[in-house]
Amino acid sequence: MLDIAPTGSARTSPWVLLRMIGAIVLGPGALSPSDTSDTSAMLVAIAVHLALSVVYGTFLALVIPKVDATLAILVGGLYGLALYYINFYGFNIFLAMVRGHARLR
What we know:
Blueprint: H1 16-26, H2 39-63, H3 69-98
């Protein structure tokens, strides 16, 4: 939930990020109107976030025990950066193709 805090600027509604995540499952209809809250979009967004977190965490848990502590820190950090860029920019580009109005800045 802390991920929505930076979007609370005057230009962007704090609900945009949750609607964008919910649109992965619900489709483009979940994006409009982006400045209001929608319980179903929020619940789906939380479920998608939880499912992806379990998958990503499980993958990392399988990799980390095979390396020493120093390399584990490096691998974990690089893995986190890779996930950030893939999820934030990859899904943002995907959603930009689906919609033209809700956008993170």
